Amino acid sequence: MKRRTAYNWCGITVSLLALFGASPAIPQQAGGFSGYAGYNTYGYPGLIDMPSGLSRPDGELSFSSSHFQNQTRNTLTFQISPRLSGSFRYALLYDVSPNVGGPVSDYRFDRSFSVHYRLLDEDQRRPAVAIGLNDFLGTGMYSSEYVVATKTIAPNLRITGGIGWGRLAGIGSFKNPLSILSDSFDTRPGRGSDNGGIVRTNNWFRGDAALFGGVEWQATDKLRLLAEYSSDAYPNEDGTAFDRKSPLNFGLSYAYRPHVVFGLNYLYGSEIGATVTVGLNPLNPPAGAGQDKAPVPVVPRADLAKLGWTPDMLNPNIQAGRLHSALQSEGIRLHGIEVGHRSVTLEIENERYATMPQAVGRTARHLTGLMPPEVDSFVIIPVSAGMRGAAISLRRADMERLEFDADAAWRSYARAQFETVQDGLSPLTGRYPHFDWGFKPYFTPSFFDPDDPVRVDFGLELAAKYEPAPGLVFRGTLRKKLFGNLDESDRTSTSVLPHVRSDFNIYERDGDPALTELTGAYYFKPGKDLYGRVTAGYLEPMYGGLSTELLWKPNNGNFALGLEVNYVKQRDFDQMLGFQDYEVATGHVSAYWDLGRGYYTQVDAGRYLAGDWGATFALDREFRNGWKVGFFATFTDVSFDDFGEGSFDKGLKVTIPLNWVSGQPSTQQYSTVIRPVTRDGGARLNVAGRLYEQTRGLQQSDLRDGWGRFWK
What we know:
This protein is mostly beta strands. About 15% of the residues lie in helices and about 45% in strands.
């Protein structure tokens, strides 16, 4: 029964990801390879079981599932940069010995991480060369390191050879060549028994080494044949899970679609195995460039002057009404307007477009057709939750001159001016109060429960928002499950810490329907480059109370600092209006740094929900279309033993903009966090509307990154 559950999980996950498998094709050399590696059975760039010196396309996110006798590996891999990829693997193993020579387990769930870095690119003379680490953060069953080279010797033929340590030094091993540097490389320390999650660098590239290699033949555009010599002796599995009779593996790989690949392998002289990989690339949206309706054309003043402007047309109230109607059709809310003789200043709220510059550009286009000819400059101020961003000054003459310029985006940005503003305009009559509500579906996954590694709930969510005045926002969210199995988990937390997160399954079981949020928040701007927030109420499904925040974010800077202080109580399991006895003061000092080229890092240091002190380190890659993929790790004064399985909190974050899927303009997105294990150490409060994300897109540094859509 356990084994059927494991296979069902693989099928469900593959089916979900296959929906994204129609990405545009990877460029292919005529009659030969694409120039990229395939995925091996461990889910990272490689041959069959062995690694490759090549990488995958930049930004690619893939899921691989492979199976042969008593071995099922499920791997999520992200090509973090053109050279670096990271993989998270969840293996379901039967009849294996977690420690070589130790007792055999009926079944075992094993989590592991891998990184693969391409050191050198292939050219006419030299091969591509990569270095990698496997299972460097888990319990170490797959622990190994390698250096590998791959060379294309004909358009449809390439060879791979490498040297491995650890698990990859099980067949034909010899004295470590690195021992010429130090005798310490001769011996590979054992990991012993632990909870996983500990990085032990003292065994990297240590102990005996061995050689491996293989060959690939691209038989057709879709079919690839592979053969390899594996240096993996399968010390934990050989003789119990299966019988390894040969170091040779043979396989074929068939690309059903460019990002849906099936594989069939004959492994170790005794077993038949199968693999499937489905992937997507944020750089290649399935809807192409999108289905935005065309923007209105820029109206030259010479044509506009022919209209004959009457006193009624020049009335500021009439002008505001016309502009309000025009922007409303674009999904842009006019927040305030002030019309002068030579310039017009207005505040806008973007409710449709993924990037603020697109909303700014469309607003400027409408102004060319609605403002009198003598108005020669537009000042547009983006607003979010009543907070004003940079004032963007555009010359009307530049709008007319650059509309069809080949380098319009860069030239319009270079000629625009950006200034920080403190005081704003009076809100447009009728802007406040404002009430909005709606229904939408929700999808909540849960991963890595050993009883059922994937659980999912689907349901309906009723969300409402009320804004009585600028910066004052009341929100409420009520959820009702329609179907799912999150409530079937009955595992009891064994945590020795306060159960601040580890009772999550009880919340899922008892909270139906669930009031997941009911808050009042006030956003304000206390000074230049300063933003503030005060939020009170039921802040998230598990906690309610008071949350305060202050953010310093310079207009044209890549660095920001924040301070958050909270006092919260734990909510009842039914997620309605009651509270439990547990309460805690928590808060963090946060540093945000835009590293450039779409990479962002964040450090949060302070006190967590269980009362522990420490810091969270995060690195995100954000694509210009709104996709985000990131990694985080939290270290606190809770010992690894007290934390329990996993040793410390860590995981992956993925954000998918809905406009990437549908092609329709939208600010909505779906986000999820994938944790290997949910424990109580390093648990942070989840508050909606934190200031850094709330102010993204309002200032010059953010506007610059998305200015390519100004004319869209």
